[in-house]
Amino acid sequence: MLSLKISAEDRRPLVEQIIVGIRRAIDERHLRPGTRIPSIRRFAEQYRVSRFTVVEAYDRLVAMGYLHSRRGSGFYAQAPQPTGEAWPENAGARDNEQLVWLLRQMTEADPNAIFPGGGWLPYDWHDQAGIRHGLNALSRTNGRHLVDYGKPYGHLPLREHLCVLLGDIGINAQARQILLTTAASQALDLLIRLLMKQGDTALVDDPGYYNLFGILRLHGVQIIGVPRKPEGPDINALERLATQHQPKIYFTQTTVQNPTGTTMAPHTAFQVLQVAERCNFTIVEDDVFSDLQRALTPRLATLDQLNRVIYVRSFTKTISASMRVGFVAARPDLIDCLADIKILTSITSSELTERVIYQMLVDGYYRKHLARLWARLDEARHNVVRAFERIGVELFAEPADGLYVWVRFPGIEDSLALADRAAREGLVLAPGRNFSPQLDRSPWMRFNVALSDNPRVHRWFERISLARDAA
């Protein structure tokens, strides 16, 4: 049984106390190899510490060779390897522990917790009436769509309508160039399965989308981060890294990017395509936040017309996370190959949900929903940004659209410590290291304006400011 002495009065950080205590227990054989140690949640409750603290301690112990993580089972003690080298086959799993932890926080939320760092809209901001309308319309009709598999490429009327939506942003596509997927996550997974193999290199935004990092690691892909600036990727760094590492793909978000909330400038987009041409890599443009942008800007796929660019999009963020519908737009030959992999891995996506999405789009519910959503986000963004300005928080950039703002608090070098403090008060934040391809320590944090425009969150902002002034 694990018994540690952890005290807030100890000068050592809590993470260090946990690491030293567990290492000593293993070295002195109080914990024998193969012994299961408490889960993250149980440890946090037993020792009255933040779960973020436990995650960091366990991650570091895994990297040091003192713990071994078994998916779905937990953490187990092990004797460190004499060479001090981590097992290469476990490297991806180790790095994904913290990313999975954040996703679990989102999906297993305490009803009383508030998620200023969450990645979604408040549930009452969604168009539940429109969803009920679509479901009711389908429930009144008999058909195989209620009980049978869908089509490998997805519901044809929706694919045809998506061609119209893509035309609105200047992308010319036919239905045979569109594959419907179970949200953008499946689209990204299918693309990685098709275009990459273990040991290949991919470029990603830094900071960028943590779930993508996890999927790439699961497939054994080496991840190289391209520094993100307010106007888009650092072009000089992109070309240098592409020349050095010869990546197959660059994954990027052009519009209201996660986590910075920034949109790629048109001149940067042109330069990205030029670098891709010179260095011969494919671009996967993840545009899941497209509909949260009020004033349209050119996409990479607009400029390239699906030649070197593969375009991914989803309705999960704006319509429903439960009705997970996304799509890939690409050359017909790529779409055919992706459809084959989709059949092998999931047979088909849900035609029922695809029909509901189609109904909302053609009946005008979605257009009206977006207009309301833009107005609410504008108000929330204004309130949250002004609150940050009042307490002297640094903004990476002030976004014009979307959910996110990327900030750093004065005097904070590792935002994980600030997330620990907030967690004790029932606020779950998103520290910057989760958005780093290599999980590097970061002073930055992501805030969701829709979830942060809350009196309880604003009071926490003020307490942080007062505590800093008093120090």
What would the keywords be for this entry?
471 residues, alpha/beta, Arc Repressor Mutant, subunit A, Aspartate Aminotransferase, domain 2, Aspartate Aminotransferase, domain 1, 3 domains, four-stranded antiparallel beta sheet, globular
What does this molecule look like?
It is a single chain. The protein is of the alpha/beta class. It has 3 domains: 14-86, Winged helix-like DNA-binding domain superfamily/Winged helix DNA-binding domain (Arc Repressor Mutant, subunit A, Orthogonal Bundle), CATH 1.10.10.10; 128-362, Type I PLP-dependent aspartate aminotransferase-like (Major domain) (Aspartate Aminotransferase, domain 2), CATH 3.40.640.10; 367-470, Aspartate Aminotransferase, domain 1 (Alpha-Beta Complex), CATH 3.90.1150. The protein has 17 helices and 14 strands. The chain has helices at 14-27, 40-47, 51-64, 91-107, 128-139, 156-168, 183-195, 210-218, 235-245, 266-279, 300-304, 332-346, 351-362, 365-390, 415-423, 449-452, 455-470, and strands at residues 67-70, 74-77, 178-181, 201-206, 222-229, 232-233, 249-252, 282-286, 309-314, 326-329, 394-395, 404-408, 430-431, 444-448. β11 and β12 (404-408) form a beta hairpin. The two termini are 40 Å apart. The model is unreliable at 82-94 (pLDDT under 50).
Indicate how many domains the architecture comprises. 3
Q: What low-confidence regions span 5 or more consecutive residues with pLDDT below 50?
A: 82-94
Assign the CATH superfamily of the largest domain: Type I PLP-dependent aspartate aminotransferase-like (Major domain)
Structural class: alpha/beta
N-C termini distance? 40 Å
Going by CATH, the architecture of the largest domain would be 3-Layer(aba) Sandwich
The CATH class of the largest domain is Alpha Beta
Fill in the CATH topology of the largest domain. Aspartate Aminotransferase, domain 2
Largest sheet: 8 strands, mixed
Whole-number mean pLDDT: 89
Kindly report the spatial arrangement of strands forming the biggest sheet. Answer: 3-10-9-8-7-4-5-6
Q: Number of helical segments?
A: 17
Specify Rg, calculated over alpha carbons. 23 Å
- How much strand? 5-15%
Number of strands: 14
Please give the share of residues in helix: 40-55%
Shape: globular
